[in-house]
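R.M. (postdoc): so does anyone remember the format we settled on? I'll just put the structure tokens first.
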């Protein structure tokens, strides 16, 4: 029997997360095998609000091998996201370091943000190199637009690095196209529901006052692992994601 198990999951826990897939690994193993099965092993993580494919291992040896592939960036990860707006250009690479900063507001909190190595000179508009933030991490995300409609886009994303909230930050602050339902990164200085365009609200049959209930539309669509031969693991978007695609008329019939 294969040492790998592919599962569609809602999220994997981190600091402060009480309910996560790690808590049900023993039960899941018994469902897949038998009542005497050993607990499955986590090989990587998904952010709290991200849906999609996750790899679990049946034994420690397989888990350690797969974790090493993730650590050495040998796993190809493809995500889908519905974003507000249309990225310009429609395809490209965002390569801007990311750092965590405290947001000073009436409700102090922390967010990841961009820490670029360059800025535009206010005098002549030329690009000027600036000192690197020593706490910033290198972050690279490839993207391409698959469809656009209703003031939104469906994007395919490939994170080359694995910085916390990388895709969300690069889309919101790098391209100006925050992910639908990303209330954290749709603003910088405040914690507030995402502001949606009128046409988007109309297509979703949603009032702005109810926007706070929109879930994050970020989905781990495919993982490709080089284990002797390359293994592709694909997970369809969850029902809420598919319903949003239909309402916004974002056609992915050919994907």
């Amino acid at each position: 029997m294969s040492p790998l198990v592919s599962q569609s999951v809602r999220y994997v826990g981190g600091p402060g997360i009480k309910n996560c897939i790690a808590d049900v690994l023993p039960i899941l193993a018994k469902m897949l095998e038998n009542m005497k099965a050993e607990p499955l092993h986590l090989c990587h993580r998904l952010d709290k609000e991200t849906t999609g494919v996750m790899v679990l291992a049946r034994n420690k040896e397989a888990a350690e091998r797969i974790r090493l592939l993730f650590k050495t960036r040998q796993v190809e990860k493809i995500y889908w996201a519905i974003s507000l707006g249309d990225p310009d250009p429609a395809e490209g690479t965002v390569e801007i370091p990311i750092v965590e900063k405290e947001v000073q507001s009436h409700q102090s909190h922390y967010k990841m943000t961009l820490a670029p190595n360059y800025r535009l000179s206010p005098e002549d508009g030329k690009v000027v190199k600036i000192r690197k933030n020593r706490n910033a991490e290198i972050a690279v995300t490839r993207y391409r637009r698959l469809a656009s409609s209703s003031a939104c886009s469906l994007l395919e994303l490939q994170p080359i690095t694995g910085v916390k909230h990388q895709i969300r930050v690069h889309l919101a602050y790098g391209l100006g196209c925050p992910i639908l339902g990303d209330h954290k990164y749709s603003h910088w200085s405040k914690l507030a529901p995402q502001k949606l365009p009128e046409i988007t609200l109309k297509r979703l049959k949603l009032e702005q006052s109810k926007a706070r209930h929109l879930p994050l539309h970020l989905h781990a669509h495919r993982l490709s692992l080089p284990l002797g031969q390359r293994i592709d693991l694909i997970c369809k978007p969850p029902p809420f994601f598919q319903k949003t695609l239909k309402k916004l008329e974002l056609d992915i019939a050919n994907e």
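R.M.: ...and that's the designed sequence above, right after the tokens. Also worth knowing: The domain at 40-248 is CATH 3.30.2350.10 (Pseudouridine synthase). DSSP finds five helices and 13 strands in the chain.
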